[in-house]
Design brief:
The structure holds two protein chains of two kinds. By secondary structure, chain A is α/β, with parallel strands linked by helices. Chain A folds into two domains: 162 residues, 3-Layer(aba) Sandwich (Rossmann fold), CATH 3.40.50.300; 66 residues, no CATH class. Chain A is built from eight helices and ten strands. In chain A, the strands form two sheets. In chain A, strands 6-7-8-3-9-10 form a six-stranded mixed β-sheet, with helices on both faces. In chain A, strand 7, helix 6 and strand 8 form a beta-alpha-beta unit. Chain A is globular and about 50 Å long. Chain B is mainly alpha-helical. In chain B, strand 5 and strand 6 form a beta hairpin. The longest helix of chain B is centred in the middle third of the chain and has 31 residues. Chain B is elongated. The chains are: A alpha/beta, B mainly alpha.
Chain lengths: 260, 394
C-alpha cells in the first residue's frame, strides 16, 4: 500500500529530503533523513518533544540550511524564495500580531504573499470559523481562535504545500474535526500536507505516518500497518515498540544510545 | 524589492500603533510635557540672594573693613542689591560655622588677623570664605557673587578708585539674553526622536523575534531589505509627526490673552531660530532612520522588553553626554574624543544647532559634514540590522 522511498510513483514528490542532517554544535537535531512525500496526501510526523520535528520541517520548508544532504520542494532545491511563496507554514507559536484585528492579520500575510483578494480571504476565514470576527483584535481571541487565525494566515495564498506544526493544539474536538475535514479537502484538491503532532490519536487521520526520534525517521507506514507490525492495538504502543530496543520489525530501529 | 510587501509592513506597523494609545501618548505627549517642564525650570529660575555672614579676626582694623561693607547702602552703591543679603553685624566664627551647617547662611567671609599687615605692606589683602561644602557647583556660584560684591564694594569704598568698567554684551547669533534652554533645544529635538524611535523599534522587533511572527515572516517571500525598509518607513511616519510636534512646541510663541478666571499665558517655548526648519527636520529624520535600524540590531541581544530598557544607559545616555552639547568635544578627555566623534547624536546635535541657532544652510561645510556622517551611520546600521535577521535566503 505505502510506497517506500525511491518507488516509482505516478507523480513526482512534492516534498523531498535526501540524507538530511542538521547539527547544532555537538547535537545532531536531524540525523540522516530521507523522505519523499507525494501530492494529494496528508503525512503525519510524529515524535515526542525534542525529537527533531520542527528542525526537520524547517529544513524541508527552506527556513534552515542542512549541514548535509538536500531538500527539494516541487523538484526545486531549497532554501529558495520562490518556493517560500508556494508553502503555507503554520508555526508552533501562533505567529500572529495580538494588537491587530483578525482581518488585519490575514490581510498583512496576504500582502506579503502578494495575493490580496477580499473574497478569498473572507472564505479562508470562514473555513476557520472566524468570518464573523473580522474586527476583533487577536489579543481578545481565545487560545483556540488564535490557533485558527494562525492557520488562516498560512492558507491566505492557497499554497500547494502546507506544513503545519502542531496545528490542533488547544482546539476543541468539534473544531478539530472541522480542521481535518478541511485538510482532507485540500489534499483532495492536490495539496501536500505535512502535519506534526505528538498526539497519537490524530495520526489515524493521516494517509501515512513518519515516526521520528533523536532526529531519525525510524518507522513509516499507514496507521494500520504500523500497529500491525508492532503487534499492538494503538499507535502509542506501536511508537514505543518501534522506538525502544528489541523491536523485531523490519524497519530500521534507532536505539536511543546509539544515535550518533 | 516589492512595493506591495514594503507597504504591507508599513501598514501593519501603523495599525499596531493606532491601537496602542499609551505608546501614542509616549510619542507625542511626553516630549511636549518634558520640553515644557524643562523650558519652565531653565527660564523661570529664581535667583536667591546669597546670605553672607562676616567674621572679624583682625581687631579694629578688620572692624573698619567690616563696617564699610555693612554700611547701609554699601550694597546698593556697589550695584549688587539683591545679589548679597548682608548681616547687621559681625559674628564670632563658631556661630558662623554652625549657622552655615544649619543652612542659615550661604557664605561666611572671614577677615583674618593678618589683614592689617597685608594692607600696610601693600602685598594685597587675603580674605577667607567658608561654605557648607555639600553642593560645590552652587557654592562656587555663590562665592563668585560674593567676590563681585567685594570688588564693587571696595572700588566704592576706596577713595579715588576709578571703579570697574561696565560691559555690554553683543552676539553674532541669537541675542545675549538667550538662555540655557535656547542653547539646548536643538539637542532635545534630536535626543527625543532618537531615544523614542530606538526604544519603540527595539521593543517592536523584539516582540517580532520572541512572538514567533519573525519566523513566520521569514517563511514568506518578503526580503530582509523589505522588512528593514518597511520598519524604517513605518516608524518614520511616527518620527516625522513627533519632530513636527516637537519643533512646533519649541519654536512657536502664541500669546493667549487673559480670559475670565484664566490669566494670560504663552503657548510654545519661542526658541529664537533663524535657520530652515525643513533642513533641521531632515537632520532629525536621518537620525531617526539610524535609530530604527539600531533598534532592530539591538533587539538581537535582548530576550525581554526589560532587557531592551537595559540598553538605554549603554546606548543612549552616553551618546547624550558625549554629544558635545553639555561639554564641547575638544574639552573632553583625550580618550573620549574619538568615541564622541563616531556617535550619531553628536552630528545631529551639531547639525541642528548650526541650522537652528546659527542659521546655516546646505552650503555650510559643517552642515554638509553632519548630513554626510548621519547618512553613513544610518546606512551602516541598516546593514547591521539586516545582518541580524537570520535567514537562508536574502
Amino acid at each position: 500500500m505505502t510506497a517506500p522511498d525511491g518507488d516509482a510513483s505516478p507523480s513526482a514528490p512534492a516534498i523531498e529530503g535526501r540524507g538530511l542532517v542538521k547539527t547544532f554544535g555537538p547535537i545532531r537535531a536531524v540525523d540522516g533523513v530521507d523522505i519523499a512525500l507525494r501530492p494529494g496526501r496528508i503525512y503525519g510526523l510524529l515524535g515526542p518533544n525534542g525529537s527533531g520535528k520542527t528542525t526537520l520541517i524547517r529544513l524541508l520548508v527552506g527556513l534552515a540550511r542542512p549541514s548535509a544532504g538536500e531538500a527539494r520542494l516541487l523538484g526545486h532545491r531549497v532554501p529558495s524564495r520562490e518556493m517560500l511563496a508556494r508553502v503555507g507554514y503554520m508555526t508552533q507559536a501562533d505567529g500572529i500580531y495580538p494588537e491587530l484585528s483578525v482581518w488585519e492579520n490575514v490581510r498583512f500575510f496576504a500582502g506579503l504573499y502578494g495575493s490580496f483578494d477580499r473574497t478569498r480571504l473572507v472564505e479562508t476565514l470562514r473555513v476557520v470559523d472566524l468570518a464573523d470576527r473580522l474586527g476583533t483584535p487577536a489579543l481578545q481571541l481565545s487560545g483556540g481562535m488564535r490557533r485558527r487565525l494562525s492557520l488562516a494566515c498560512a492558507l491566505v495564498h492557497r499554497p500547494p504545500i502546507l506544513v503545519l506544526d502542531e496545528p490542533t493544539v488547544g482546539i476543541d474536538p468539534a473544531l478539530r474535526v472541522q480542521f481535518w475535514r478541511h485538510f482532507r479537502a485540500l489534499a483532495a484538491a492536490g495539496a501536500t500536507l505535512l502535519v506534526t503532532s505528538h498526539v497519537m490519536d490524530e495520526a489515524d487521520r493521516c494517509d501515512e505516518l513518519l515516526f521520528i526520534l533523536a532526529g531519525r525517521i525510524f518507522a513509516r507506514g499507514t496507521s494500520a500497518e504500523l500497529r500491525q507490525r508492532a503487534g499492538s492495538e494503538n499507535l502509542e504502543e506501536a511508537f514505543l515498540r518501534f522506538s525502544g530496543d528489541g523491536g523485531d520489525v523490519a524497519q530500521p530501529i534507532v536505539s536511543r544510545g546509539g544515535a550518533a | 524589492m516589492s512595493r506591495r510587501r514594503v507597504l504591507a509592513v508599513v501598514r501593519r506597523i501603523v495599525a499596531q500603533f493606532r491601537r496602542d494609545r499609551r505608546t501614542l501618548a509616549l510619542i507625542f505627549v511626553v516630549p511636549i510635557v518634558i520640553s515644557a517642564l524643562l523650558g519652565w525650570v531653565l527660564r523661570d529660575q529664581q535667583t536667591a540672594a546669597v546670605r553672607l555672614g562676616i567674621v572679624n579676626q583682625a581687631g579694629p582694623a578688620g572692624q573698619r573693613i567690616a563696617d564699610a561693607l555693612l554700611a547701609p547702602g554699601a550694597a546698593d552703591q556697589a550695584g549688587s542689591a539683591g545679589a548679597v543679603a548682608l548681616p547687621s553685624s559681625t559674628i564670632p566664627e563658631s556661630t558662623a560655622r554652625s549657622e552655615l551647617a544649619n543652612d542659615q547662611l550661604d557664605v561666611v567671609l572671614v577677615i583674618p588677623a593678618d589683614v592689617a599687615g597685608g594692607l600696610a605692606s601693600g602685598h594685597g589683602v587675603r580674605l577667607i570664605v567658608i561654605t557648607q561644602g555639600a553642593n560645590a557647583p552652587v557654592e562656587g556660584g555663590q562665592v563668585a557673587q560674593v567676590q563681585q560684591f567685594l570688588a564693587r564694594a571696595v572700588s566704592s569704598i576706596v577713595p579715588g578708585s576709578p571703579g570697574l568698567p561696565t560691559i555690554e554684551h553683543e552676539t553674532v547669533f541669537g541675542s545675549p539674553s538667550s538662555d540655557t534652554f535656547d542653547a539646548l533645544s536643538p539637542f532635545f529635538i534630536g535626543f527625543f526622536v532618537y531615544f523614542l524611535v530606538f526604544i519603540l523599534t527595539g521593543i517592536s522587533f523584539l516582540r517580532e523575534r520572541m512572538g514567533g511572527t519573525l519566523e513566520r515572516l521569514l517563511a514568506t517571500p518578503v526580503t530582509k531589505g523589505e522588512i528593514v525598509l518597511g520598519y524604517t518607513l513605518g516608524f518614520g511616519i511616527f518620527a516625522t509627526l513627533q519632530v513636527i510636534v516637537l519643533m512646533a512646541v519649541m519654536l512657536i510663541r502664541i500669546d493667549v490673552p487673559a480670559l475670565g478666571p484664566f490669566g494670560a499665558f504663552t503657548l510654545g517655548l519661542a526658541v529664537p531660530s533663524v535657520g530652515s526648519p525643513l533642513l533641521a527636520f531632515l537632520i532629525a529624520m536621518l537620525l531617526a532612520i539610524g535609530a530604527v535600524s539600531l533598534g532592530i540590531f539591538i533587539s538581537t541581544f535582548a530576550r525581554t522588553e526589560f532587557q531592551i530598557l537595559q540598553f538605554i544607559p549603554i546606548v543612549i545616555v552616553p551618546q547624550g553626554l558625549l554629544s558635545g552639547i553639555f561639554w564641547r568635544i575638544d574639552t573632553l578627555p583625550a580618550l573620549l574624543q574619538p568615541l564622541a566623534r563616531v556617535l550619531p547624536l553628536t552630528y545631529a546635535a551639531d547639525g541642528l544647532r548650526e541650522v537652528m541657532i546659527q542659521g546655516r544652510d546646505l552650503s555650510a561645510a559643517g552642515v554638509q559634514l553632519d548630513l554626510g556622517v548621519l547618512v553613513g551611520i544610518a546606512a551602516l546600521f541598516v546593514v547591521l540590522a539586516a545582518a541580524t535577521i537570520r535567514r537562508e535566503v536574502a
